[in-house]
Amino acid sequence: MPHSVRHEPTPLEIVKDNNMEGKLLGKWAVITGSSSATGIEIVRALAATGLRLILPVPNQAEAMVTLGDAYHPNRMEFVTIDHTSLDSVREAAKHIISKTERISLLVCNETATPSPDLQLTKDGFEVQFATNHLSHFLLFQLLKPELLAASRPRFQSRVIVVACEEHKKHGLNEKSNYNFEKGGYDAAVAYAQSKTANIYMANEIERRYGTRGLHALSTNSGRIIAAASQSDDGKSLHPNLQPETAGKSCVRGTTTTIWGAIGSEWESKGGRYLSHCADARTRDSEEDIYGTTCAKHTYNPVEEARLWQDSLDIVGLLDDQ
Ligand SMILES: NC(=O)c1ccc[n+]([C@@H]2O[C@H](COP(=O)([O-])OP(=O)(O)OC[C@H]3O[C@@H](n4cnc5c(N)ncnc54)[C@H](OP(=O)(O)O)[C@@H]3O)[C@@H](O)[C@H]2O)c1
């Protein structure tokens, strides 16, 4: 049963409720964006399942410090990655594959800091589209054989792409305008496009590989609040609001991602956008106080297929189907 938005558990409670403590020992997971904020809590919760973790990070020494007590060197390994560079993603994938032939879980959590002005990566792509979407698309493609190889009847392989409520603001630009080539750059639109792309990637992975035991979900962490109120989920700042509207701590902002990543409810399933620990409903009214709805464009097989093909062309890969 989906959890009530008013009684959303912590990520570690999700692990316990699903009887997953130590149950994934011997299996491997890759988590991007693990070196700050919600990423640290994803590491902490997934470590409790026994998974061995590969953590692609921009700076290994800094990541070790920020992960603090969540870092366990005997069960975690860093790989250096710069998500703004497709070459760096290719290099990181090579290192990951050199460590394991089977990956049961890929969590795409990394996100670029939105820039008020249009910025292009050195590959020539708008920064948010490039780092939030293209880098994860390429990483998935390069790790796909290992993800397929790891799938087992008791735990089929999963890809979790962390998206955002903000995707509702905008779908995909047209093919010739992913990088705002036609002008009109807006940081919020660029972020929304990249987060819609995250959801479309998950939906299309499910469509293409679900029957082969490789599933994908997208998740919304919810608005993360300032560090000052991490301990009480913002209650001191917004005593009359639920965390879903007031904002969440990094810990609770991780719950939905962990639910999708290891929750038994999602075994052998995918292609859904999860928000606040529920399968988000299509918006049918303007009342959305808990942000548990999706937008009309959240599911769009035609646009999902278009993005997939365009992304293959951009990263220089051929379709395998
Ligand atoms: N924060 C929110 O309110 C919110 C709301 C809804 C959804 N989300 C989604 O939740 C996810 C995590 O958000 P967050 O707020 O926890 O993110 P964050 O604190 O901004 O952390 C981003 C992570 O990505 C890494 N990163 C950034 N640029 C990179 C690059 N070029 N190469 C390699 N790594 C890079 C950062 O590494 P370093 O720190 O080591 O540089 C960090 O670990 C994102 O997908 C975001 O869209 C967030």
Automatic annotation (TrEMBL):
One of its GO terms (molecular function) is oxidoreductase activity. Keywords: Oxidoreductase. Belongs to the short-chain dehydrogenases/reductases (SDR) family. PANTHER family: NAD(P)-BINDING ROSSMANN-FOLD SUPERFAMILY PROTEIN (PTHR24320:SF272), RETINOL DEHYDROGENASE (PTHR24320). This is Uncharacterized protein. It comes from Clonostachys byssicola. The lineage of its organism: Eukaryota, Fungi, Dikarya, Ascomycota, Pezizomycotina.
